[in-house]
Amino acid sequence: MPKLVHRFVLAGIESEVPPARREIVDKVRAWGVPLEEETADAIRLVASELITNAVVHGAGPITVTLFNRPGRLVIDVLDGDPSVPRTRGAQPDDENGRGLALVRLLSARCAWEPAGAGKRVWAEMAMPMAVETSTAAAGPRGLFAMWAKHRDGVEPKSLTMAVA
């Protein structure tokens, strides 16, 4: 099965977080990954924490990239602030400060790295195997890329491709 990739760009405002996490779960389901509600909730939480941290502590625009291979999902969030992500010691009554700890708990692996003028923070999650993924559009070489330009020449906000 090819590696599936989906990318979209956010301006970096808090109101974008809920639709972004919905888009992520919808895309994973569209790839044919059978998600129980518990797994979907874990994806939503990890995505929400990574994107919210980029919005609150980073700098926009924010690029979210999903990588799906059989049994694995990587949620990668790129923002324009090079600051090192830090885990805060949240107190029992604190409403914030547990995001990265939750990401570590729910993911198989997570890390960050400098990227250009900013940073990339990612989490890899174990997923159930996809039941069926359409490769009809992949063509004989197993490569499909959708990257159309709008009439005004501006690239779309979303990119999906399958790489063999």
Automatic annotation (TrEMBL):
CDD domains: HATPase_RsbW-like (cd16936). Keywords: Kinase, Serine/threonine-protein kinase, Transferase. One of its GO terms (molecular function) is protein serine/threonine kinase activity. InterPro entries: Anti-sigma-factor_SerPK, HATPase_C_sf, HATPase_dom. Residues 18-123 form the Histidine kinase/HSP90-like ATPase domain. This is Histidine kinase. Transmembrane segments: none annotated. It holds the Pfam family HATPase_c_2. SUPFAM superfamilies: ATPase domain of HSP90 chaperone/DNA topoisomerase II/histidine kinase (SSF55874).
